[in-house]
Protein backbone atom coordinates (compact mmCIF):
# COMPACT_ATOMS: atom_id res chain seq x y z
CA UNK A 1 0.00 0.00 0.00
CA UNK A 2 1.18 3.53 -0.79
CA UNK A 3 0.14 4.36 2.76
CA UNK A 4 3.46 2.98 3.99
CA UNK A 5 5.63 4.87 1.53
CA UNK A 6 5.09 8.26 3.11
CA UNK A 7 8.15 10.33 3.98
CA UNK A 8 7.96 11.85 7.46
CA UNK A 9 9.71 14.86 8.99
CA UNK A 10 12.51 13.38 11.09
CA UNK A 11 12.38 15.50 14.26
CA UNK A 12 8.61 15.30 14.68
CA UNK A 13 8.58 11.60 13.81
CA UNK A 14 11.31 10.79 16.33
CA UNK A 15 9.27 12.49 19.06
CA UNK A 16 6.17 10.54 18.01
CA UNK A 17 8.12 7.24 17.95
CA UNK A 18 9.37 7.92 21.46
CA UNK A 19 5.96 9.07 22.71
CA UNK A 20 4.26 5.86 21.57
CA UNK A 21 7.05 3.57 22.79
CA UNK A 22 5.20 2.33 25.91
CA UNK A 23 2.02 1.57 23.96
CA UNK A 24 3.90 -0.17 21.18
CA UNK A 25 6.14 -2.23 23.47
CA UNK A 26 3.24 -3.44 25.63
CA UNK A 27 1.08 -4.27 22.62
CA UNK A 28 3.70 -6.28 20.76
CA UNK A 29 4.87 -8.04 23.90
CA UNK A 30 1.33 -9.36 24.35
CA UNK A 31 1.03 -10.15 20.64
CA UNK A 32 4.28 -12.15 20.64
CA UNK A 33 3.01 -14.31 23.49
CA UNK A 34 -0.33 -14.79 21.76
CA UNK A 35 1.21 -16.18 18.56
CA UNK A 36 4.04 -18.15 20.16
CA UNK A 37 4.22 -21.62 18.61
CA UNK A 38 1.63 -20.76 15.96
CA UNK A 39 2.30 -20.98 12.24
CA UNK A 40 -0.94 -19.48 10.97
CA UNK A 41 -3.77 -17.18 12.05
CA UNK A 42 -6.46 -19.41 13.51
CA UNK A 43 -9.38 -18.97 15.91
CA UNK A 44 -7.12 -19.10 18.96
CA UNK A 45 -4.90 -16.34 17.58
CA UNK A 46 -7.92 -14.18 16.77
CA UNK A 47 -9.40 -14.73 20.24
CA UNK A 48 -6.09 -13.72 21.82
CA UNK A 49 -5.79 -10.73 19.49
CA UNK A 50 -9.27 -9.58 20.47
CA UNK A 51 -8.30 -9.69 24.14
CA UNK A 52 -5.07 -7.77 23.44
CA UNK A 53 -6.84 -5.00 21.53
CA UNK A 54 -9.48 -4.57 24.25
CA UNK A 55 -6.81 -4.49 26.98
CA UNK A 56 -4.94 -1.85 24.93
CA UNK A 57 -8.03 0.39 25.23
CA UNK A 58 -8.96 0.20 21.58
CA UNK A 59 -12.51 -0.40 22.79
CA UNK A 60 -14.84 -3.36 22.34
CA UNK A 61 -16.76 -2.09 19.30
CA UNK A 62 -13.66 -1.05 17.40
CA UNK A 63 -11.88 -4.27 18.34
CA UNK A 64 -14.74 -6.33 16.93
CA UNK A 65 -14.55 -4.34 13.68
CA UNK A 66 -10.84 -5.08 13.38
CA UNK A 67 -11.27 -8.79 14.17
CA UNK A 68 -14.13 -9.10 11.67
CA UNK A 69 -12.02 -7.54 8.93
CA UNK A 70 -9.11 -9.86 9.69
CA UNK A 71 -11.44 -12.89 9.71
CA UNK A 72 -12.63 -11.95 6.21
CA UNK A 73 -9.05 -11.75 5.00
CA UNK A 74 -8.21 -15.10 6.60
CA UNK A 75 -11.22 -16.63 4.85
CA UNK A 76 -10.33 -15.16 1.47
CA UNK A 77 -6.61 -15.91 1.68
CA UNK A 78 -7.24 -19.48 2.90
CA UNK A 79 -3.82 -19.61 4.58
CA UNK A 80 -2.50 -16.62 6.46
CA UNK A 81 0.84 -16.87 8.20
CA UNK A 82 1.66 -15.34 11.56
CA UNK A 83 4.40 -13.26 9.97
CA UNK A 84 1.73 -11.44 7.95
CA UNK A 85 -0.46 -10.58 10.95
CA UNK A 86 1.48 -7.43 11.86
CA UNK A 87 1.09 -6.03 8.34
CA UNK A 88 -2.61 -6.88 8.23
CA UNK A 89 -3.24 -5.22 11.60
CA UNK A 90 -1.39 -2.16 10.39
CA UNK A 91 -3.49 -1.96 7.24
CA UNK A 92 -6.83 -2.50 8.98
CA UNK A 93 -6.16 0.06 11.72
CA UNK A 94 -4.99 2.52 9.06
CA UNK A 95 -8.24 1.86 7.22
CA UNK A 96 -10.32 2.60 10.31
CA UNK A 97 -8.47 5.85 10.98
CA UNK A 98 -8.88 6.85 7.35
CA UNK A 99 -12.66 6.67 7.67
CA UNK A 100 -12.63 9.57 10.14
CA UNK A 101 -9.27 11.30 9.75
CA UNK A 102 -9.22 12.22 6.08
CA UNK A 103 -6.51 14.87 6.29
CA UNK A 104 -2.78 14.41 5.98
CA UNK A 105 -1.77 17.66 7.67
CA UNK A 106 1.50 17.79 9.57
CA UNK A 107 1.65 21.54 10.25
CA UNK A 108 -0.41 23.91 12.41
CA UNK A 109 -2.52 25.66 9.80
CA UNK A 110 -5.70 27.70 10.12
CA UNK A 111 -8.17 25.55 8.18
CA UNK A 112 -10.43 28.31 6.83
CA UNK A 113 -10.04 31.63 5.04
CA UNK A 114 -12.17 33.59 7.49
CA UNK A 115 -10.39 35.59 10.16
CA UNK A 116 -10.31 35.18 13.03
CA UNK A 117 -10.43 31.38 13.24
CA UNK A 118 -12.25 30.70 16.53
CA UNK A 119 -11.45 27.53 18.44
CA UNK A 120 -13.52 26.71 21.54
CA UNK A 121 -11.82 24.17 23.83
CA UNK A 122 -13.77 21.84 26.13
CA UNK A 123 -12.77 19.03 28.48
CA UNK A 124 -12.77 18.10 32.17
CA UNK A 125 -10.23 19.51 34.58
CA UNK A 126 -6.97 17.60 34.76
CA UNK A 127 -6.83 16.28 31.19
CA UNK A 128 -4.28 18.85 30.08
CA UNK A 129 -6.76 21.33 28.63
CA UNK A 130 -4.95 24.53 29.66
CA UNK A 131 -1.57 23.10 28.67
CA UNK A 132 -2.98 22.09 25.29
CA UNK A 133 -4.30 25.62 24.75
CA UNK A 134 -0.90 27.07 25.64
CA UNK A 135 0.91 24.71 23.28
CA UNK A 136 -1.60 25.42 20.52
CA UNK A 137 -1.02 29.15 20.99
CA UNK A 138 2.73 28.56 20.74
CA UNK A 139 2.45 26.44 17.60
CA UNK A 140 0.06 28.81 15.83
CA UNK A 141 2.24 31.79 16.71
CA UNK A 142 5.32 29.90 15.50
CA UNK A 143 3.48 29.30 12.22
CA UNK A 144 3.11 33.07 11.83
CA UNK A 145 -0.42 33.62 13.08
CA UNK A 146 -1.54 36.33 15.49
CA UNK A 147 -3.19 34.58 18.45
CA UNK A 148 -5.53 35.79 21.23
CA UNK A 149 -6.58 33.68 24.22
CA UNK A 150 -9.86 33.93 26.13
CA UNK A 151 -10.10 32.71 29.76
CA UNK A 152 -13.79 31.73 29.78
CA UNK A 153 -13.32 29.00 32.39
CA UNK A 154 -14.32 31.38 35.16
CA UNK A 155 -15.45 28.63 37.52
CA UNK A 156 -11.94 28.25 38.97
CA UNK A 157 -9.49 31.04 39.69
CA UNK A 158 -6.67 28.55 39.05
CA UNK A 159 -7.84 28.02 35.48
CA UNK A 160 -7.63 31.75 34.75
CA UNK A 161 -4.22 32.05 36.38
CA UNK A 162 -2.86 28.98 34.57
CA UNK A 163 -3.95 30.35 31.21
CA UNK A 164 -2.33 33.67 32.09
CA UNK A 165 0.95 31.84 32.75
CA UNK A 166 0.79 30.28 29.31
CA UNK A 167 -0.13 33.59 27.66
CA UNK A 168 2.91 35.19 29.29
CA UNK A 169 5.14 32.26 28.34
CA UNK A 170 4.08 32.27 24.70
CA UNK A 171 3.78 36.08 24.65
CA UNK A 172 0.25 36.32 23.30
CA UNK A 173 -2.57 38.58 24.55
CA UNK A 174 -5.24 37.16 26.85
CA UNK A 175 -8.70 38.46 27.74
CA UNK A 176 -9.77 37.60 31.28
CA UNK A 177 -12.20 38.65 33.98
CA UNK A 178 -12.58 37.76 37.63
CA UNK A 179 -13.52 34.32 38.87
CA UNK A 180 -17.29 33.86 38.76
CA UNK A 181 -17.76 36.18 35.77
CA UNK A 182 -20.12 35.18 32.99
CA UNK A 183 -18.13 32.91 30.60
CA UNK A 184 -20.12 34.18 27.63
CA UNK A 185 -19.13 37.75 28.52
CA UNK A 186 -15.46 36.77 28.49
CA UNK A 187 -15.88 35.04 25.12
CA UNK A 188 -17.65 38.11 23.71
CA UNK A 189 -14.90 40.47 24.91
CA UNK A 190 -12.22 38.12 23.57
CA UNK A 191 -13.68 38.09 20.08
CA UNK A 192 -14.17 41.85 20.07
CA UNK A 193 -10.54 42.30 21.09
CA UNK A 194 -9.37 39.79 18.48
CA UNK A 195 -11.29 41.51 15.69
CA UNK A 196 -9.93 44.90 16.77
CA UNK A 197 -6.38 43.49 16.72
CA UNK A 198 -6.93 41.78 13.36
CA UNK A 199 -6.02 38.45 14.96
CA UNK A 200 -5.83 35.21 12.99
CA UNK A 201 -6.63 32.72 15.74
CA UNK A 202 -8.76 32.93 18.89
CA UNK A 203 -8.66 30.11 21.43
CA UNK A 204 -11.40 30.13 24.06
CA UNK A 205 -11.04 28.05 27.24
CA UNK A 206 -14.29 26.84 28.84
CA UNK A 207 -15.31 25.27 32.15
CA UNK A 208 -14.35 21.64 32.68
CA UNK A 209 -17.03 20.39 35.03
CA UNK A 210 -19.32 17.52 34.11
CA UNK A 211 -21.35 17.03 37.28
CA UNK A 212 -24.41 18.58 35.66
CA UNK A 213 -24.65 17.94 31.93
CA UNK A 214 -27.66 20.22 31.48
CA UNK A 215 -25.85 23.19 33.03
CA UNK A 216 -22.80 22.48 30.89
CA UNK A 217 -24.91 22.24 27.76
CA UNK A 218 -26.69 25.50 28.52
CA UNK A 219 -23.43 27.29 29.31
CA UNK A 220 -21.64 26.16 26.13
CA UNK A 221 -24.71 26.98 24.02
CA UNK A 222 -24.81 30.48 25.50
CA UNK A 223 -21.07 30.98 24.88
CA UNK A 224 -21.53 29.99 21.23
CA UNK A 225 -24.57 32.24 20.79
CA UNK A 226 -22.84 35.28 22.27
CA UNK A 227 -19.67 34.72 20.20
CA UNK A 228 -21.77 34.72 17.05
CA UNK A 229 -22.77 38.31 17.75
CA UNK A 230 -19.18 39.22 16.92
CA UNK A 231 -18.13 36.50 14.47
CA UNK A 232 -21.19 35.10 12.75
CA UNK A 233 -19.99 31.53 12.24
CA UNK A 234 -18.03 31.13 15.49
CA UNK A 235 -16.81 28.79 16.81
CA UNK A 236 -15.28 27.22 13.73
CA UNK A 237 -14.14 24.23 15.76
CA UNK A 238 -15.04 22.78 19.16
CA UNK A 239 -11.99 20.87 20.38
CA UNK A 240 -12.47 18.22 23.08
CA UNK A 241 -9.29 17.49 25.04
CA UNK A 242 -9.00 13.95 26.42
CA UNK A 243 -6.34 12.38 28.62
CA UNK A 244 -5.11 9.30 26.74
CA UNK A 245 -3.68 7.78 29.90
CA UNK A 246 -7.16 7.32 31.40
CA UNK A 247 -8.15 4.73 28.80
CA UNK A 248 -11.82 3.86 29.06
CA UNK A 249 -12.54 6.95 31.16
CA UNK A 250 -11.64 9.00 28.10
CA UNK A 251 -14.42 7.19 26.19
CA UNK A 252 -16.90 8.17 28.90
CA UNK A 253 -15.79 11.81 28.81
CA UNK A 254 -16.15 11.84 25.03
CA UNK A 255 -19.66 10.44 25.38
CA UNK A 256 -20.65 13.09 27.93
CA UNK A 257 -19.25 16.04 26.01
CA UNK A 258 -20.58 14.97 22.61
CA UNK A 259 -24.00 14.78 24.26
CA UNK A 260 -23.59 18.28 25.74
CA UNK A 261 -22.27 20.09 22.68
CA UNK A 262 -21.26 19.54 19.07
CA UNK A 263 -17.62 18.45 19.17
CA UNK A 264 -15.81 18.75 15.82
CA UNK A 265 -12.26 17.71 16.74
CA UNK A 266 -10.30 15.85 19.40
CA UNK A 267 -6.96 16.35 21.12
CA UNK A 268 -5.60 13.30 22.96
CA UNK A 269 -2.92 14.18 25.51
CA UNK A 270 -0.35 12.36 27.68
CA UNK A 271 0.22 9.48 25.26
CA UNK A 272 3.91 9.40 26.14
CA UNK A 273 3.28 8.33 29.74
CA UNK A 274 0.93 5.44 29.05
CA UNK A 275 0.59 2.10 27.30
CA UNK A 276 -2.97 3.04 26.31
CA UNK A 277 -2.21 4.57 22.90
CA UNK A 278 -4.90 2.35 21.39
CA UNK A 279 -7.46 4.76 22.82
CA UNK A 280 -6.77 7.08 19.87
CA UNK A 281 -7.94 4.39 17.45
CA UNK A 282 -11.08 3.52 19.41
CA UNK A 283 -12.26 7.05 20.15
CA UNK A 284 -11.71 8.20 16.57
CA UNK A 285 -13.66 5.22 15.24
CA UNK A 286 -16.54 5.16 17.72
CA UNK A 287 -17.34 8.85 17.82
CA UNK A 288 -16.56 9.59 14.16
CA UNK A 289 -14.76 12.75 15.23
CA UNK A 290 -11.31 13.41 13.77
CA UNK A 291 -8.33 13.44 16.10
CA UNK A 292 -6.67 16.76 15.32
CA UNK A 293 -3.84 16.92 17.86
CA UNK A 294 -1.94 14.49 20.08
CA UNK A 295 0.32 15.14 23.06
CA UNK A 296 3.44 12.95 23.07
CA UNK A 297 5.64 14.73 25.62
CA UNK A 298 5.86 17.52 28.17
CA UNK A 299 7.82 19.95 25.98
CA UNK A 300 6.14 22.94 24.40
CA UNK A 301 6.82 21.44 20.95
CA UNK A 302 5.42 18.03 21.87
CA UNK A 303 1.82 18.78 20.88
CA UNK A 304 1.61 17.50 17.31
CA UNK A 305 -0.89 17.73 14.50
CA UNK A 306 -2.30 14.20 14.27
CA UNK A 307 -1.32 12.49 11.05
CA UNK A 308 -2.81 9.03 10.66
CA UNK A 309 0.07 7.84 8.49
CA UNK A 310 2.71 8.87 10.99
CA UNK A 311 0.74 7.48 13.92
CA UNK A 312 0.29 4.01 12.44
CA UNK A 313 3.88 3.92 11.21
CA UNK A 314 5.15 4.78 14.71
CA UNK A 315 2.84 2.31 16.43
CA UNK A 316 3.88 -0.58 14.20
CA UNK A 317 7.49 0.41 13.56
Helix content: 40-55%
Let me know the largest β-sheet: 8 strands, mixed
What's the mean pLDDT score?
87
By secondary-structure content and strand pairing, the structural class works out as alpha/beta
Specify the oligomeric state.
single chain
Measured distance between first and last alpha carbons: 15 Å
- Which outline best applies? elongated
Strands ordered across the widest β-sheet = 3-2-4-1-5-6-7-8
Number of H/I helices: 12
Taking all Cα atoms into account, the compactness measure Rg is 21 Å
Notes on the structure:
β2, α7 (157-170) and β3 (174-175) form a beta-alpha-beta unit. The protein is elongated and about 65 Å long. Residues 1-5 have low confidence and may be disordered. The longest helix is centred in the N-terminal third of the chain and has 18 residues, at 60-77. By secondary structure, it is an alpha/beta fold. It has an eight-stranded mixed β-sheet, with helices on both faces. The chain starts with 9 loop residues before the first helix and ends with a helix. The protein has helices at 10-19, 21-35, 43-55, 60-77, 85-100, 129-142, 157-170, 183-196, 213-227, 248-260, 279-287, 308-315; strands at 117-122, 147-151, 174-175, 201-205, 237-243, 265-269, 291-295, 303-305. It is 50% helix and 12% strand. α2 runs antiparallel to α3 and α6 runs parallel beside α7. This is Signal recognition particle receptor FtsY. Its EC number is 3.6.5.4. It is a peripheral membrane protein. It catalyses: GTP + H2O = GDP + phosphate + H(+). Keywords: Cell membrane, Cytoplasm, GTP-binding, Hydrolase, Membrane, Nucleotide-binding, Receptor.
Amino acid sequence: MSFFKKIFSSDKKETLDKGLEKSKTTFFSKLSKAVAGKSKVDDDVLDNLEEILVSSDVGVETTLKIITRIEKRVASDKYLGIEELNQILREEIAGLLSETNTGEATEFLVPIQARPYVLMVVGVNGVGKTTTIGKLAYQFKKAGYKVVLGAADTFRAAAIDQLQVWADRVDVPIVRQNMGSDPASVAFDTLQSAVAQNADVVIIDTAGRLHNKINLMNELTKVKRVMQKVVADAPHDVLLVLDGSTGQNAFEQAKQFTAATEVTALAVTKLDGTAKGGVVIGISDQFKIPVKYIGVGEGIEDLQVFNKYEFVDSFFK
